[in-house]
Fold this protein.
Amino acid sequence: MKIAYLVIAHNNFDHLKRLIRAIQTEYTYFFIHIDRKSPLVSFDEFYHIQVIPKHYAITWGGFSMVEATIELLKTAFHFEHFDRYVLLSGADYPIKSNAYIEELFEKNQTINFIEAEPMPTLNKTFDRLFCYRLECDRDATLQSLPVRAVNRIVRLSGFRRAYPQEHQDYRPFAGSQWWAFNDAFVDYLLTFLTANAAWVAFFKHTFVPDEMFFQTIIMNSPFAQTVRNTLTYADWESGPPYPSSIQTMHLRLFKNEFIYANHKLSIYCFARKFTDQSSKILDEIEKIRAGF
């Protein structure tokens, strides 16, 4: 079982290195995207690791997040054959042992783990998809203010776009951006993206596309019946901030094989989010991992 971990990171690089050490095995490879706005960081102490040469300046809610993810997928897919492609952030950490994770993938080779709920969901409206939006910084700055003003005018105007003509019958889906795809779907996905430039162009002007782009593709594909929930736990109830940083109160959850979160009982192999200051709680998580 060869696993390609695709990691999107922009800070907390000490934690990122601990993440790599925790899940690195003979059969795991790492492909890392470092944000263009971040300082250079070396990973010379590791093996089976590649920082991809293309660096996007990622903005929250923008298509740059999807672009970085696609670049990671393409790099890993053309590097060599992998059985599983797992998207993580640099703020993640495993809560199950490597043996548990590998066995889960081995027993579920046809399954694709991604949260995908029909839109509109509890907190994701159709405006995210059909309201034209220009990508800009989340924070109000002199550079972002004109773009933010344009986005506000468009949103208030009531103008909404339609899907590309060839995808009018696609039902939109949304959910957490973190997933674990098998090789068969990744092959299908990259072929789809090459053949459907209009689809990609449409999503460049949506809001938080990383929570809709891959979800909608897979749920309107022959792989829809292979979908199971994401393997990455995040606490969206205890914040702010959202998601909440992992704290001592979460440890009791991680001792269970199944965890109830976001209105569903599910297996989670990873959790987020952590920082460079999370070492003490990570020591406790390592004790829990030893039991799986």
